[in-house]
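User: Structure tokens for this complex, please. No commentary.
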Amino acid sequence: MSGILVVAEHDAGVFRRTAWELLGKAAALATELKTTVSAVVLGDAPAADLGSAGAARVIHVTGDFATYSTAATTAALNAVITAEKPDVVLAASATLGRDAIPRLAARLGTGVGTEVTDLRAEGGAVVGRRPLYSGKCFADVRVVRAPAFFTVRPNSFPQPTRSGAPAPVTAMAAPAASDGVTVLEKRAPSTATVDLTVADRIVSGGRSLKSKEAFDTVIRPLAASVGATVGASRAAVDAGYAGHSEQVGQTGKVVNPTLYLAMGISGAIQHLAGMRTSKVIVAVNKDPEAPIFEHATYGLVGDLFEIAPKLTAAFAAS
Amino acid sequence: MKIGVCAKFTPDTDTRIKLRPDNSGIDPTGIKWVVSPYDALAVEEALRLKEKHTGEVISFTVGGDDTAGLLKGTLLALGVGRAVLVNDPAAVGTDALGIARILAAAAKAEGLDMLLFGKQAIDGDNGQVGSMVAEILGWVQVSRVSELTVEGTQFKAVRAVDGGLKELVAGSLPAVVTADMGLNTPRFPKLPDIVKAKTKTVEVKNLAALGLTAAEVAPAVQASNFGLPPARPKGRLLTGDADQMVGELVRLLREEAKVL
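Assistant:
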């Protein structure tokens, strides 16, 4: 093995949790495979700090990467990989991992194990385990050409302890690359709450709400009372009670919170696919036969219009 | 405007996935095949671009013997002008790059202004093929697009980026665009159009016709050891009236689940 390369992403110089998460996992894999971990950083960030989580060296591509560019990102990573020749490249499943990594894999004639939730060393190589059909089933994935790219779903691995020494840093100037795509405007999300895909608490409403007004006056205050992000079933979104960006399920967001409250959601297969890995699931539904109860940690059979306001008050008081 | 759209057929989202006995993949028995929902957004957007700017929509699909019939009842019935189907035994079991090489080869000859994809297909959930085709063709790409306009040789698109942010971007055609929810609401084919489409022709090609060899689509990514998700531990139903259930729930969330 000539090593594992981690794409360490940062926001304005602060490394993301996924950067540390990937480094921690890469260090464990490298120990098993008797190889080393290096990291690549695009743009201005304290690159040497990555040594604390196991990076033996860091390649720091200098240049302006503050606004995401497919062409600049792909060209920079291509230059680093061509020089370093890693066997395995790990990136988080986020914009860079979804947009640039496949393009880069095509440039290098290799493949990507997409959005894995586990990685292991086996037979001298890295093998991924990943959900398919939005988590209705899982499979092992191997990439039989080099480098083997894997993108990793956030929160798949624990945050490592950071005790190592600073890593030596090699600077590289960003290669010139532009595809002529310019960003005219950045639009912040309409709510101040955490994005569904990384939310720790979610309150979702279903078709039983029967109107947008009910959704706004029952579900949103309940979510606010417990510091949760609002989600919705496809039926609720199709009926116009909530926005597309709030849909949880196979054709919406796949979520992984600690607490998921399903309010008036029957539990269609396509919804379950998006939230079944939630650690604690609470279901409120007036139909005791609703499939959601088979997956709920705690089930409340009753009228959500009666229960939700009481729950809102109880959460607000606690 | 000459608009291409790549679409595949996937199990309907209501499908309960079953596995083959040897865990080598899913059991396709009894599955209802639909245009992958994000691809359906791409098809709708292609039709709208054609209606606004005039021109032609050509679809590209990699599939099997049953796929031509599915294409007639869906894309051709909706108004896609030509449907190209690549059907070749060497393409079975290929990976995203193999599919991308096939689609790029099929699209290259058509002189397209834009090639639309869904942001991902809802079976493999890979979301790689659009970016890979853009690379092979040497075109710009914009991923996860929820608004799109074209004026002359320029496009504007709203894309999703990290942290729930969206960006309005501009660029030059030809371009690959991948569709996200919110882009549009796909129309359904009308019954008379479905009947009429039965007499339309799907253009079937093999790899050789595209100048590709089996070796060029040999997979770099191999999937094995399929399994179903682990069952959740059995939960409990709370009892009593609404006040009692709510009180008990808050207590359990705090003391037992320890999530409050």
